[in-house]
Amino acid sequence: MIRRDELYAGKAKSVFSTDDPDLLVLHFRNDTSAFDGEKVEQLDRKGMVNNKFNGFIMQKLSEAGIPTHFEKLIADESALVKKLEMFPIECVVRNVATGSIVRRLGVQDGMELNPPTFEFFLKNDALHDPMINDYHIITFGWASAEEIAEMKALTFKVNEVLKQMFDAAGLILVDYKLEFGKFHGQIHLGDEFSPDGCRLWDKETRQKLDKDRFRQGLGGVVEAYEEVAHRLGVDLS
Ligand code: C5P
User: Fold this and answer.
1) Whole-angstrom distance between the N-terminal and C-terminal Cα of the chain?
2) Which residue segments constitute the domains of the chain, with CATH numbers given?
3) Quick one: which of 36, 108, 123, 194 is 20 to 30 A from 30 by CA?
4) Contact at 8 Å (CB) between 4 and 17?
5) Average pLDDT over residues 125-141
6) Residues 173, 95: Cα–Cα separation, whole Å
């Protein structure tokens, strides 16, 4: 597969066209950003770790019947993916309260959420990704009612699969963000699933093993991602 032009450079990944109009190359860079791009650093090995981590998770989700854009790893820092028409929306599920929900609602940090919550955010850095609801999505034409229902169902199915998988590895899946798009009319999971877009705590010590280490300046960011990958059995060689 020939990697052609760079179509888009996000904060941590770049997207390239290929000689097949249905496929793209996703390149995971070492760039790490937080606070809408205000804090940016290069972290050695992060691109490779996230690419392989994401490939592992996407494969597990696909085996569980969740359609994903992931095709295969093609290099240490790149994967081949289906070209989706993305919804400009982020889907967030929380099993434990922390982060923005604590700031917004004043609830206890670390409290278990039963049932888990679901939130939509608009992907818009200039507006700081505001929280939106189903009515905004339908009124402004970002997705239909049927597409909303499917994104919610898939996001919760991901929770069932991954909560158990992380639990077996001694980790709590605190929360995560997913993005979806359409491929030939069918909704697929796109973007990535890595410790950049979820929160993972050690079950015993509640130590943070995700991007909060970077956001909060705790250090050992990539080492924590590698620890999680190691516990899950992701091949980083
Ligand atoms: O900041 P907040 O608490 O709303 O984040 C919820 C979850 O979504 C976290 O796991 C965070 O890493 C992820 N997230 C993300 N990208 C964003 C916003 C949140 O990956 N733009």
Assistant:
1) 22
2) 3-82 (3.30.200.20), 85-220 (3.30.470.20)
3) 123
4) yes
5) 97
6) 7
pLDDT exceeds cutoff 90 at 181: yes
Q: Both tokens of residue 4?
A: 């052609």
Could you tell me if the CB of 28 is within 6 A of ligand 1?
Answer: no
Q: Is the CB of 191 under 6 A from ligand 1?
A: no
Structure confidence at residue 3 as a pLDDT band (50, 70, 90): confident
Q: Any idea which residue has 């937080």 for tokens? A: 34
Mean pLDDT of 107-117: 98
Please, are residues 228 and 201 in contact by the beta-carbon 8 Å criterion?
A: no
Distance CA 168, CA 31 (A): 30
Q: How confident is the model at residue 1 (pLDDT cuts 50, 70, 90)?
A: low
DSSP for 42-95? E-TTHHHHHHHHHHHHHHHHHHTT--BSEEEEEETTEEEEE--EE-SEEEEEEE
Is the pTM higher than 0.90? The answer reads yes
> Which amino acid belongs to residue 148?
I
Which of 177, 209, 214 for mutating ligand 1's site (highest number of atoms within 8 Å of CB)? 177
